[in-house]
Amino acid sequence: MKIKLWGVRGSLPTPPLPEEVEARIRGLFRAFFKAGNKELGQVEAFLASLPPPDFGGYGGNTPCIEVITDRSQVIINGGTGIRRLGYELMRGPCGQGKGEVHIVFTHFHWDHLVGLPFFNPIFIPGNVIHAYAVQPELPDVFKNLFRKPYFPVNLADLGAKIIYHQLEKRKSFSIGDMTLTPYQLDHPDPCWGYRFEKDGKVFSHCVDTECTRATREELGPDLPLYQGVDLMTFDAQYTLFEAIEKVNWGHAAASIGLDIAMREGVKRIVFMHHDPAASDEKIAAAQTQAGRYYNGQHKSSARSGLTDLHQVDWTFAIEGMTFDL
Ligand SMILES: [Zn+2]
Ligand SMILES: [Zn+2]
């Protein structure tokens, strides 16, 4: 499986402000010369030496993830990230009206839908769009999304054929050569994460969750979402302090995901759904805080001598990142 992150921002698309871009360019020029560089030929090496968010930031498109194998493709959610994915698909069969697209929805908050009216394959006659959700409202959601006066094209006038698939809770189903199972997350409106399996590799999507149920007992039937996982995308909209402050807002902090990952032996975890109110610098600070938390947990576990805490490979999501499983 290959996983590509087309949108990692939560709640609202967040393009960088002109003054933020200016401040970054100014800061980079200063850092370039302060490091003793003088020539054009030194630019690329200097930029490559920076942590990636210091150069391009974390990205502002709302959630959209592509999961691909040699034979199949599944898109998770229709946030604004899906617009650019649509451009790419239009260069293949979708551009000729021979495309088949599979989109699974976690839930229907705006940030997970708002890119769909700008997903070009949906307007091409001959294309088939399969839409999947546990929630029975899925067809109504499409009807309301493609409707005047909110959008000029009514659902009935879209070129592509839309086929709805209502999923059963915690019951596995197949899309091409991948097996998916929806498990419930903790969010103000019902929200379902997905466990993807292919050739013994597992990718779990656990975003838009407060993880109010964190122990094995509390998670109960949803525990398999977190077990035997090679790569997990997890909600880190907030810092730990904000997560405590914003109870019932439906989002988590990286430390919560790290605790679960260390306990359940998750190999790699990627934190996303960054807060739209957070600057790149603030997200970087949350990343540093997560690192302190992770290292602290390992140090205290080593001191106690009781158990060897599981080592997790973790990172904060940057738009455009890809992962191979
Ligand atoms: Zn969201
Ligand atoms: Zn949501």
Describe the protein's architecture and organization.
By secondary structure, the protein is α/β, with parallel strands linked by helices. It folds into two domains: 2-14 and 57-324, 4-Layer Sandwich (Metallo-beta-lactamase, Chain A), CATH 3.60.15.10; 18-52, no CATH class. It is 28% helix and 22% strand. α8 (254-264) runs parallel beside α9. It starts with a strand and ends with a strand. The relative contact order is 0.15. The model has no long low-confidence stretch (mean pLDDT 95). Bound molecules: zinc ion (2 copies).
Structure described in brief:
The chain is of the alpha/beta class and 325 residues long. It folds into two domains: 2-14 and 57-324, Metallo-beta-lactamase, Chain A; 18-52, no CATH class. The chain is 28% helix and 22% strand.
The strand count comes to 14
Strand order of the largest sheet: 6-5-4-3-2-1-14
Shape label: globular
Low-confidence stretches: none
Mean pLDDT: 95
Please give the largest β-sheet: 7 strands, mixed
Structural class: alpha/beta
What is the third-level CATH name, the topology of the largest domain? Metallo-beta-lactamase, Chain A
Assign a percent range to the helix content. Answer: 25-40%
Q: Provide the β-strand percentage band.
A: 15-25%
